[in-house]
């Protein structure tokens, strides 16, 4: 089974070593914060997981493919728009194709699986009123009857139940196991829509260029956000006036 990129290949290619861009196989430099190592790798061999996006995500049709949708509707248009940006001397506004891609890049990265489980444990559901209702289209979602695997965030116990039978467990504090593919892909789809419809329109956007001789880097989480005292806060932190979001497009 071939690997699927959780950081898009065209995005990684923008960070290739300039000395390699004229060669048949350009490369980028991969640094590990764990051991301090630095390796040279091709973008096609970086940030991939086999079968990570096999499935329909939030599409109603079970035969739909999130990976195909991403390639044709999100990544393809964004790759063209990003190439134009690379040739531009000034950036006044990011193209819609790039903004849409960034919403998906923020949602579908591999670290999001770990973070979603962490947020569910740290921020338990409250009985109080919601800060605001979901964006209107999400109120009209169709019920999908399928097998679902919830997990107890404190006990670590998991069960396999039908989605229509999961309400009782969810009310008792169980959460959908993000390690299960269908759960993760549905959450990615919903979260990407939240970024596009709710969070991105509320932000003030600035474009930055590094000083001469210095560079931006891209990581496993290509779009990051947080508040000054918490760099792993959930997306709802973007309601805070001190919140920020960082999305390196090229070095």
- Which class of secondary structure composition applies to the elements? alpha+beta
Q: C-alpha Rg, in Å? A: 19 Å
State the end-to-end CA separation. Answer: 32 Å
What is the arithmetic mean of pLDDT?
Answer: 89
Structural domain tally:
1
Number of alpha- plus pi-helical segments: 6
Could you spell the SSE succession in H and E letters? EHEEEHHHEEEHEHEE
List unreliable stretches of 5+ residues: none
How large a portion of the residues is in β-strands, by DSSP E? 5-15%
Helix % is 25-40%
The strand order across the widest sheet is: 1-4
The largest pleated sheet is described as:
2 strands, antiparallel
Note the overall shape. Answer: globular
Q: How many DSSP E strands?
A: 10
Structure described in brief:
This protein has 251 residues and is an alpha+beta fold. The protein has helices spanning 9-13, 66-86, 96-108, 111-122, 167-171, 181-202; strands spanning 3-5, 28-31, 38-41, 48-50, 147-148, 150-151, 161-162, 175-176, 224-226, 244-246.
Please supply descriptive tags for the structure shown above.
single chain, 251 residues, two-stranded antiparallel sheet, 6 helices
